[in-house]
Amino acid sequence: MRKTFQSTKDFFKNTFHYFAPVIFFHLLLLLVVVPTLTATTNFLLHRKEIDYLAYDNVLSIFSQHPLTAFALLGVLVLILVSVFLEFTFLTILVHFVKQKEKVTIPELLYATFSRLRHLRPSFILFFLFYFMLVLPLSGFASGIDIISAIQVPNFILEFIATNNWWLLAAYILLTLLSIFIGYRLIFVLPLMILQQKKLRTSLRVSWQMSKGKFKVFFFRFIAIFISLLASFWIISQLLILLQSAIDHHMPQIALASATVIMFIIQVSALLHMLLSLILIFYVVINLLEELTPEEIYVELRAFRLLPKGWRWAGRSLLGLFTILFIALIGVFNVYYLSQDTLSNPLIISHRGVSEKNGVQNTIPALIETSQTYHPDYVEMDVRETKDKQFVVMHDENLRLLAGVNKKVNELTLAELTKLTVRENGKSAPLPSFDEYLKEADRLNQKLLIEIKIPLKEDVNAVSKNFLQRYKKDIEAKNHQVQSLSFDLTRSLKKQDSSTFVSYIMTYNLIGVPKSNVDAFSVEISTLDSEFVEKAHDYGKKVYAWDVNDANTVQRMRLYDVDGLITDDIPVVKKTIEKTQSGMSFAQKIRIYLLDLGNADLTDLSSDSFSSFNV
């Protein structure tokens, strides 16, 4: 316990020694490396007129454009090298700070890039396994820029948690296995970087050193992590409470105080991010130095100091840049705080239900949802049957909802409409799309129709069949169409440019795809404000799915999305209504915190806005 306390104390005592190098390398990655890799990927795709990159076209890229595929693999290798460089830079930095040795940024960069000469093909395979599979699932390196972008989308986690107990058990076991492997191999790269051991030796030594030390590692990690989390939470909440009081009792200075308070929170968030990034490296290197008797030697190259005049000019330029940067932040804060309201997006019922009020994609649920909640659109799913009709069904296989182990396209419409589907303690007939559409038109309820197709289906035939049957009704009633198949959305727009079509994206990998669609329906896990802004620049709308809590509602509104697809309409409506007539500055600061990636630190539920008179 004493060592844990001392470790935590030393970590915070050296905070400002990390600041400049980490910020520099972080900016280098965010402003140079990541944009370059993204631009390179887009260039390679556009050069061969490949409009997007997703799970359903990877094989076709390899078969039709092998050179492009290998070039994309080269980009993947560069991504792994970037991760290695960030890991190396932070490892060496923490080592020198712990040793209380002064080291300059050029010296750190030299020591970091000099490690590239040790890279071998076997290292690349290890990185692919360790960085891309083990660390993201284990959560050990969530602060690393590129690793933090690797995540399981929310909709997959929800599906695992609610539909298949064996999938949930498998996911939990996989996560626990990743934590175990991630911990047992946690000394591998520090051993390679600081002691220049070979990969095989590092694997063996790490496995031996980590045995029986998990409790020590865990308590040191948790002690610092909780201290970081608590300090940021307390600071942000106290400042928001202060702003709430100023909003109510001194409104004449509220904007000025909000600008300053928001800046303090931004600086606090920056420190929190920086220390969270360093945390895992500090704990690992601290343990490594305790457990190994070998002396650690990092070769540094001495760089000749610039003339005094040049150094003075450099410091002056840095000071000027800092003042300009602070001024720009101030301007941004004033602009953000001066906005009266957030966006007012469309509210779209997911699969025609809300609050589990019926069986998804059935007519009774449609009637109940439309008449009770009045959504702008009802999102629902259609599939083509064996006899080329259309039926309302989400799943490809009927087993889960109808208890029949058959695929939809293996049965005729007449056979399908005899089935009963069950969910949420309710049951209803499986409807044809003709019946569902007729009822929606009677209710004056607009639909967002998702066309689902098997991977090898003829998209042109499906789109032609669908438009021949429903084009007139869709245009007359302002219904919209979407699909997870990029080729199908392209075919729909090619055959009828007037139909509103949205492409569904499960993952925002390289930004806005090149497409002739009218909108993108993007899963919330990887949707960001940059994607929305670029989509709007291209004249495309953005729908976010699935938005089921107040925090996410406000974050998506902050991004200026055009529609929210939800399973809980009351939560979405209540959250929007709470802030539709104008917000206090304290509310705006709370919402801004969400976009800093700290949604778990703030409470934006319907009750939170009434708490503390915010």
TrEMBL record:
The chain crosses the membrane at residues 21-45, 65-94, 123-150, 170-194, 217-240, 260-285, 317-337. One of its GO terms (molecular function) is phosphoric diester hydrolase activity. Keywords: Membrane, Transmembrane, Transmembrane helix. The keyword Transmembrane applies. It comes from Lactococcus garvieae TRF1. The keyword Membrane applies. This is Glycerophosphoryl diester phosphodiesterase. SUPFAM superfamilies: PLC-like phosphodiesterases. InterPro entries: GlyceroP-diester-Pdiesterase_M, GP_PDE_dom, PLC-like_Pdiesterase_TIM-brl. Residues 345-576 form the GP-PDE domain. It holds the Pfam family GPDPase_memb. PANTHER family: GLYCEROPHOSPHORYL DIESTER PHOSPHODIESTERASE, PHOSPHODIESTERASE. GO terms for biological process: lipid metabolic process.
